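Notebook B, p. 112. Complex prediction, attempt 2.
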Amino acid sequence: MSETRTIVDRDGREHRFPPPLERAHRVVEGRVVTRSLEAHVVDHCNLRCAECCSLSPLLPPRFESPEALARDLARAAAVLAPAVFKLVGGEPLLHPELLELVHVARRSGIAPRVSLTTNGLLLHRMPDALWQQLDGLTISRYPRPRIPAARVAEIEAKGARFGVRINWKQQDAFVQMSRPHGPADPAETAAVYGRCWLRERCHLLRDGHFHTCTRPVHLATLHHADPRPDGLALEGCTPEGVLAYLRRETPLAACAHCAGGDAPMVPHRLLSPQDLRRDRRPRAPGGGAGSPREPA
Ligand code: SF4
Ligand code: SF4
């Protein structure tokens, strides 16, 4: 387990990391109120961070279609009421239909706020129309490559001009969620799942399913497996079904291959070509794959 740290944001607010667990969910007007919901609109990225939670450096390119997102959001909006809907990746700015995806999210009414999470390296190429549609931007900043100071100033200015709240996240270290020595035994798997904060803060929408965290779909892609048994089918789902899924005590199958959100932190680094060749090798589920989530 990693030690608890306190992080102060630019507004002077203190945040505990790992964050406290929040397992109480209310139902309001037939929808389960949650902190956030995200869709990974691409799986690939223009960076190759070791310990990337989304495993992006190891995954093939994938582009979410606006039609599929609209379908999933319509189902999700019937039972979920997240405070914010996030378009995430991989690197979402690599999606050629990103603007349409943002429009789809807005039209769905899934959440009062729509935000985008990016490494910021391609932001200067984005049209004003994208800025006009967003409420927030979370931009991860790594030791390498650095976003030049002039570009940071441009982004701040655009945020102010279009009323987009910019959340800069300095990512000098990542949680080491990979399990290089294979899957955990059932007791350890249950303990990791029991104390994992990511299952409350990283809710994912994918292929008609609601997932309590993002790891199962990416581990499944890496291992050519089916992530759906770890998720909740949204077709015909009720708020009670969502609550039962969120409160379940049985770990996900993916948890055996994951060290969880409170695993130790390691310094950020970029994978070398040799690392990539080694880590992309297909392994049977249980072979200890993956790389962890960046701190939220
Ligand atoms: S951590 Fe973010 S920027 Fe780094 S590889 Fe993963 S998705 Fe890309
Ligand atoms: S798969 Fe990993 S991140 Fe997801 S709930 Fe299990 S331990 Fe947590």
